[in-house]
# Entry
Amino acid sequence: MRRTRVITLVAVVVSVITGSIASVPAGAHARKVLPAMEVTLLAHGLQGSVGATIGPDGALYVPEAELGQITRIDPTTGNATTFASGLPHREIFIGGAIDVAFVGTTMYVLVTVVGPDVLGNSVVGIYRRDGPGGFTVFADLGTWSIDHPPLTQFDLPDGVQFALQPVADGFLVTDGHHNRVLHVSSTGEITQRMQFQNIVPTGLAVTHGTVFMSQAGPIPHVPATGKVVSFPLNPAGPNAHEVASGYSLLVDVEPGPDGALYALSQGDSPGDVPPASPAKPDSGELLLVNRNGSFSVLVDELDLPTSLDFVGNTAFVTTLNGEVWKITNVSKFIKQ
# Structure
């Protein structure tokens, strides 16, 4: 089950000591050479995986949309066990339980594309786990979206929600189909935080009062429209501005080690394809967001990655084909 590949590094650190210890000037300190990143298959066989999160116990929690359940994955052994079940199952090739988050020890799950607009009979929204007894609907995003249609064109009135991000007063939710970010209060009240043009918002992260958001860009998902943008967590702040761009189908963004920001590209553009089509296989990349607005590739040849999570300098990448990859020794000083 576990496969390992070590990343070949073009540059390990800004400066590498190549001479002998005797060649170092007196009083100087040799810089430590960082260990190479190692990419290992941690788990596979998940059914309908997209989002994931690190739980309060340090384990990885992944929704399995085909099964209507949340699976706990041990970050050391890769052992997978069912943590919670009873969620709506996926109705079509996308949707179902798509993302998960914790507030304290309480689990919340984002469920999408299960309503009447795809001939389903379940609520599109955020579900709260109420202990072993199962889940209850915390916020009905589908009904709210029907009552408050977006400014951009759409086919599904319920929307296609993608990412669930806890914030101090509730949650932020991206809707990649309605091209907007919603705010859900701690009591379940829904409001629109920001409406965009057709940019396909995807992943979310919040750090130091700033929201970072990845965007896949409209079809055909050319690299120029794959971006990371930011906007203030305070709703009275200005509109989003570009942080970095240049890689197609960006699906997630996360703060990571060394105080840096990282992003995840699902891969190369598949061309002029139907909506919700994935990237080309084996072309996904873990990216470092540079201060000059560019990206640096840290790991490539990932197969349809969808979610990025960090524990220290270890990254966990969940993929559309049911795998979880563990990447150790991630650092902004290591570039491939």
In short: The two ends are 26 Å apart (CA to CA).
